[in-house]
Amino acid sequence: MTAKVDFFYEFASTYSYPAAMRIDRVAEAAGVTVNWRPFLLGPIFAAAGMTTSPFNTQPAKGRYMWRDLERICQADRLALKRPDPFPQNSLLAARIAQALPDDGKRAAFSRAVYVAEFGEGADIAVPETLGRILEKLGIPAAPLIVQAGSDSVKQALRAAVDEAKAHGMFGAPNVVTSDGELFWGNDRLDAAIAWAARIG
Amino acid sequence: MTAKVDFFYEFASTYSYPAAMRIDRVAEAAGVTVNWRPFLLGPIFAAAGMTTSPFNTQPAKGRYMWRDLERICQADRLALKRPDPFPQNSLLAARIAQALPDDGKRAAFSRAVYVAEFGEGADIAVPETLGRILEKLGIPAAPLIVQAGSDSVKQALRAAVDEAKAHGMFGAPNVVTSDGELFWGNDRLDAAIAWAARIG
């Protein structure tokens, strides 16, 4: 049996960018399969009384994060361009990712969204940005954007948020192993994959 | 010339514990010298409108931190016992560390405080706990505790907090390299030492 992990990512989350770009590579090397699980931090932040990113409400933490992300992107050879506004409204991107099958298409779309948002500074709240990404991947954009607004997709995304809460998530990205162990942050990605490979 | 880093640590900070226990080892292997710089997060948190640890105000984050610290301590073969109350009042410990010369005594005292606090769950706000640690290190406790209350020590610690703020610190532990680069967290300790070794 192949070891599996759930990768919970939020499109507005900065550290989800380098994590999304490398998780399949790290997991594959360890013989671990990744379930790509888009979710939303907004409802979790709101329930904790937060109205925006802590990187905005705590200026010193925000300044540090951008510099830290710059170092990480440099080491990982990833482009970095700060999107405006930050954080981005990630709802439509998350619904489209949820609507796509998790057979490689969802991962490819998600990586392309992160590259557009944090590599090129594009606004991912704009349907045209997401439509262009889908078309580049050979996926007809219009029907998928319609499907992304369906009740079943909305419900699936809400269920993902509920699952994220139940796992104790409070930030992004996260990896959850099959025994329910939670690993938070791009910094814990390697430990999470090693854990998954060990428990099998 | 030997590369040097400033290690800014707060005795109440959980992740400062594993960092303090390994930084000299990691730095020595890279030919880097560590300046041990006790400081206080309290005034920095207060200036940001926070009255206690975010691990207390955000329960999910707190639960995750204790589990994460457990995994780290297990990997590093460090004992872990949660002190009560948390966070501990770290003022006297910080003043004593500041009063000690940074010639190995300050580092040895600081490590011993972390072991007592997070390895044994002792209350480090109690002078007896700190006195016992000093005596074990062969340092007469009474005169040092008097010296820790002197104006010069208080002022030196306040200056350390001002320096921490000027470097943009918002948490602990931190490593600052001689070119002013800030690295936050036990997770960035290795990157910080590698950076210091590279710039020389």
Automatic annotation (TrEMBL), chains A, B:
Annotated signal sequence is: none
Name the SUPFAM superfamilies on file: Thioredoxin-like (SSF52833)
Q: Which reaction does it catalyse?
A: 2-hydroxychromene-2-carboxylate = (3E)-4-(2-hydroxyphenyl)-2-oxobut-3-enoate
| Keyword Isomerase tagged | yes
EC number(s) from the headed UniProt entry: 5.99.1.4
Q: Which GO terms describe its biological process?
A: glutathione metabolic process; naphthalene catabolic process
Gene Ontology terms, MF aspect:
2-hydroxychromene-2-carboxylate isomerase activity; glutathione peroxidase activity; glutathione transferase activity
Entry annotation: catalytic residues = 13 (nucleophile)
Q: Which UniProt keywords apply?
A: Isomerase
All copies of the DSBA-like thioredoxin domain together span: 5-191
Give the EC class as a word.
Answer: isomerase
State the family named in the UniProt similarity comment for this chain.
Belongs to the GST superfamily. NadH family.
Protein name (record): 2-hydroxychromene-2-carboxylate isomerase
Q: Which organism is it from?
A: Phreatobacter aquaticus
